[in-house]
Specification:
It is found in: Cytoplasm, Cytoskeleton, Cilium axoneme; Cytoplasm, Cytoskeleton, Cilium basal body; Cytoplasmic vesicle; Golgi apparatus, trans-Golgi network. The protein is an alpha+beta fold. It is built from 25 helices and 57 strands. It has a five-stranded antiparallel beta sheet with strand order 10-11-12-13-14, with no helix packed on it.
Length: about 1200
Amino acid sequence: MLPFTVNIKLSARTLTGALSAQNRGASNLEELHQEWCTCLYNVKWAKENYHHNIGSPYSLRLASADATGKIIVWDVATGTARCEIQEHTKPIQDMQWLWNQDASRDLLLAVHPPNYIVLWNADTGTKLWKKSYAENILSFSFDPFDPSHLALLTSEGIVFVSDFSPSKAPASSGKKVYISSPHSSPSHKLVTATGAKKALDKVKILISNEKPSAESVTLNDCLQLSYLPSKRNYMLLLYPREILILDLEVNQTVGVIAIERTGIPFLQVIPCFQRDGLFCLHENGCITLRVRRLNSIIGSPNEEPDPDPVQELIYDLRSQCDAIRVTKTVRPFSMVCCPVNENSAALIVSDGRVMIWELKSTISGRSLRASASPLYSPASFCGIPVGASQNKLPDLSLDNMIAGQGTVAEEQLKNYFLQEVHLKFLLTGLLSGLPLPQFAIRMCPPLTTKNLKQYQALLAVGTSNGSVLVYNLTSGLLHKELSIHSCEVKAIEWVSLTGFLSFATSAPNNLGLVRNELQLVDLPTGLYFLENLYIDEQQKKGLIHFRQYLAVVFKDKPLEIWDVRTCTLLREMPKNFPVVTALEWSPSHNLKSLRKKQLAAREAMARQTVASDTELISVESSVISLLQEAESKSELSQNISAREHFVFTDTDGQIYYLTVEGNSVKDSARIPPDGNMGSITCIAWKGDTLVLGDVDGNLNFWDLKARVSRGIPTHRGWVRKIRFAPGKGNQKLISLFNDGAEVWDAKEVQMVSSLRSGRNVNFRILDVDWCTSDKVILASDDGCIRVLEMSMKPSCFKMDEQELSEPVWCPYLLVPRASLALKAFLLHQPWNDKYSLDIFHVDYPENENVKKLIQEQLNSLSNDIKKLLLDPEFTLLQRCLLLSRLYGDESELHFWTVAAHYLHNLYQEKVQTAKTTDTVILPEKLVNPLDICYDILCENSYFQKFQLERVNLQEVKRSTYDHTRKCADQLLLLGQTDRAVQLLLETSAENPHYYCDSLKACLVTTVTSSGPSQSTIKLVATNMIANGKLAEGVQLLCLIDKAADACRYLQTYGEWNRAAWLAKVRLNAEECADVLKRWVDHLCSPQVNQKSKAILVLLSLGCFTRVAEMLHSMRYFDRAALFLSLSLLSTLFLNPCLHKLIHAIFADYARSLKTLGFKHGSIQFASKAGAAGKDLLNELEQPKQEVTKG
């Protein structure tokens, strides 16, 4: 018979409780480490915006910053610290990982008080550079569209840094601007009462180059600064009662989200990338989603905008979750949002709770005109347009729930599959923390060979509010919460694996009396068997239980003995009984006689009620195997009980040895007090060893067999508790003192480890116990319960030892080879007629345990995801997008999103024109263009439309001459000459620029396309550019339709982004492509090293052949092979010139799959590689041939 094995892993971990004020920034906090000396200030997950392979695998990296200025970068899966960083001893104000990870994926920028920013290599802990500024830095935000731009929020204003680089510190001190608080202006007082339009009219200029007056408050109440990732050059400022949207091109407020007078103030805001939306956290714990109203600005290019519509960015409230009950100790702390899908948010509450809210979409049954500003479902799913009958998962991500900003006008919607949708928040997860201390902890009985099958590692935690929390330490999750008592729980004792006793004592009343409550709880049913046994009596000191009997010790009252089985009082000691200071039951008992009595009683009962012999045998076996079933009616009626023993000490230190059987208590022996010991406070008994602790910190070790004792002074004061470790022959014990704890070896009589408050740690230990034979449990006054190794040193939690109640999809926890093999398996299965989710059915010669872990990950996928993956109509392109979301791979997500969009455009053009092109995609008006969050990558027509709407809004909001001039310059570049002339003529005669603006207006009006005038203007423009007037020269070139020349000049002078912008809004498709291709060459240069962005630009141009070449040269073999495998690119195979490239890509991908051990996939792609994969194919198929011959 094979032995029965069980694997119960109890790893070191921390059960966390309420948060402190310093934890407010640590919103990504994960139970990871026990660096218990300080509070965490900030926690940030690393970005995944890089290509993943065996050398750069998927890994969970987390940076944590504490109150002492230490930054630790963690590998979450293994629970180990990759590096530690320390610059100063003050708290880190803010930190962020760099989002552009082409050069390095390990760069972390941190704000070190008071005014330093430091760039660190988070893999090695190396400081790359350090830069100081004039003002104290509070936080910062990276520009998501330009890695060289950074905004610092300081104590006086904002500093814009435009020369940020990983290679060297910024040379300049940045551009400093000042922001007056919205409440500092008397004209802003009507914001909450008069609506958004009037409120915005009141908020004129908030950004200026001049320092505000002394009486105005500057930025003191600004809670947050952040760039908008959904569109370039926009920023939000968060104030308690409003969110300001700033257009950084004109430094002007173009949108205000104001709260009504009775509304709940803001606490935090997270702007979205996929759609122009904002997740807002309010002070009552309510999370709201606000989405920008589409087409809020509509006007003809050369017409004056209609003054009737509200000329601003309007963010409509689309969904909100339920608020929490806010008290003095319970309030919302922070919020985080899913960075990949943006469809869920987690709320962290001060009491330690984490609430997971997921966004769900529902199709509205109303007509399209039912609401003033409806949201529509997108026409596509995972990049491909789908019909009503096709499988899709709308709640996969925010951009799959609602259509983008470029959706066509309402009257055109009838020709397309678009439906109005509504959004709602759904609470899908709740994690509870520990309440505030005090704590009383007790671990359930230890694991033995007899309770192997039903054992659960449960820890009971008594709290100050009278509830008992039962935690499963294998998962770290709350198993049950029981509201048992009405006052503080003082002690807990387990009576079995599924039941425990708890007692609680209230605070003394006016007469000095307390209320004592004693409860016996059965966990499976939640029933209580005792209830308020003592009301207004003298204080109970403790309870000590062993199997059948319970000893209840009072402060000034004789001892009581209770029968746990019947919940009845057996004996109350006489008044002259000694005052008990410490008591402990003997670990030995008359087990054999008890078994005989129980068996006889059960047999007698069974003969009366059981007819068959087989049932009788089952009754006998249950009696023998389950000793805890002593509560049967026959046993109780016959008063069957075992003889048990206990010892206690009195106030003089004398030890009494008593025997209990039934309601009989006999005094068996007495041991005189040890003269070296003070008043005994606690006793522990195991085997032949008895250990006593006293008020002076002395430990007395008694060897009962040898009848010798040894006293050890610890000099730590009152010994509050002693507990022996479980396990036969294990003589380790833990002792609790007022200032800490110690672990001793009672056999060798020597200390194993020590922990002292104020020296090793900054918290005070409230209670101790043993978790297993080698791990201890400490409850502390900082609100945490820690499971530690016997050394009691800080240790890390290992996620691979986590036993989850249900499987969770997280391929990051697999070893790198397995994680990448799983991804390849899910992406493409060309060897199968239909897709499979069984890893055991493919040729993958990997370790069985690894394959089992991979299969567990496959099984953990939701049914909706499985349905999509098994759908034969779900294309490879859609699978690539879906897997990039499932893996949280930002780099893949951006690549496949842009690729899917423009590949589908190419397919549509082929259908319409029956012609192919591999160079430039012709522009067409699309129902669902690529959203503006992709900026330069969008279609030219949509990009131009967005820029016109933007300049119209800027024009409406202009309030100074500088703003008017910027608007006129922008209109000239956009070709809107008539409106630009009107703005130029508005310059007042007193303005020093009046003459120049008047002449410019005349020039713009009278310019002709004749040869001489064009030559003259071009000559003047060239001279102006040569003499440092680049912007003016570019304007002149645009006036004479020489925008292509203007772009070349801009690129020559390093204005690459500006040149790309101008090309998108002024040039035709071919000229624009030429400009952008030069930009691609610049992005690929070693000095810039933004090849990932260059590939996205090439995708937007339709240069798919060059995309494949670049992917191969960058060794992105998987992405290149899958890109070539797309059916939409089948025409590339018809070009003989590309066969060598295609074969090389497939051969290299086959080799990478072989490295992963994914043999089935490797053979498939090697067979596609022609001559380049022939040798590899022979090598892979050789073992099969050998097996066949054999």
